[in-house]
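DM from R.C. (forwarded with permission)

"hey, sorry to bug you on a friday — could you get me a structure for this? deadline for the figure draft is monday and I only need the backbone to look sensible"
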Amino acid sequence: MGKYFGTDGARGRANETLTLDMAVKIGQYLGWYYGQKRHAKILIGKDTRLSSDMFEMGLAAGATSTGASVYLLGVCPTPSVSYLIQKEHFDCGIMVSASHNPFHDNGIKLFNGNGCKMNPEIEEKIEAYIDDNSTEDVVVAKDERIGSVIPWSEGLELYESWLKSIVPMDLNGMHILLDLANGSATSCAAETLAALGATVEVIHSAPNGININTKCGSTHPEELQRMMKEGNYDAGFAFDGDADRLIACDEDGNLINGDYTMFICGCYMKDNGLLKDDVVVTTVMSNLGLYHAFKDKGIRYEQTAVGDKYVFECMNEHGYSIGGEQSGHIIFHAHANTGDGLLTAMKLLEIMKNTGQSLKQLGADLFIYPQLLINTPVKDKHAALEDAELLAAVDEVAKELGDEGRILVRPSGTEPLVRVMVEAKTDALCEKYVYRIVDFIKEKGL
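My reply, with the result:
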């Protein structure tokens, strides 16, 4: 983790921890870095939050000042930037978004020329340049070397065409409800599914700059669930702010999170000979029930640290076909280098069409174990997790749970907290074991 860039770009409150000056400098560095032999070609996309225009313009101004040709995609899903970089041979790409965060936050996510997350070494050099500590001679362009900005709305049409070519299907007769989170999905989700013949209804599709993710989308799907229960829909889909995550909803209003999606897609891909080595990649936060269900279906799994970046690294190293997170980031390696909410929705619809089964039927063999997660404040999270007595207490819980549950104790990435999570067959067992550890931490004053 760098000073400004974390595992998912630079993120912070607009004009407080993430500033226009930073955006200009990031643009300048990238325009110079990729433009040392010829004009750099850089793609910029954004979500619908109020500050996204400001950061888009700052990045573009910085990049053109060092000679880059900057293509503005406008409001778009994050995965469309990743795809178009590869298809149209951009040197790099930038997405302005803070994903599922509230509107007052924003983020600057960098992609390399392969449409993957930017190399951390380059991010470190950008951080040095932001802080005026750079050892490199980043020079602005003069005369005919100054760059230009090109509005590029056709890019989204290319992305939509590509999606329809990956999952070519006739959705006539299907009634689909979409929660667009007042975010990036408003740019193309409904149009893409309607073009395949579906009857599409949308909610939260009127972004005004401040309503992105507000009581809507993948983090707040309650209204989608209510409408699915009351209405006559085949499937419901909720996106996050930048549309790289998807939480689905079955016809009875039950949520289909990332674990369910990996189970449904993993089983279908295995049955059709599309699952490399019969392996699905998950993070340590996936539910124990998913692993039991995979075992029953003859599917193996790899576990990574939390973060789609780590899932992708593992998939890339071994060529695995599918991986993802409980939160709804799902990566289909044959098609994309990043999670894509719309592609995930289309894959689920394809499975429904090809099997004749509903989402509820497709997920029926997965029993999700109850889970309880408690965040406990500590003086020093790293020291706490090295405490021998605490580790012994955690081991004791793990032994008592055996194969019928698990305990996970890990530090928060951003706060002085330790996260204690237990999965077991009943809520009562979860509570018993979580509070045994939480109370131990408090009594010991860690």
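R.C.: lifesaver. The mean pLDDT is 95.
me: no worries. The chain has 15 helices and 19 strands.
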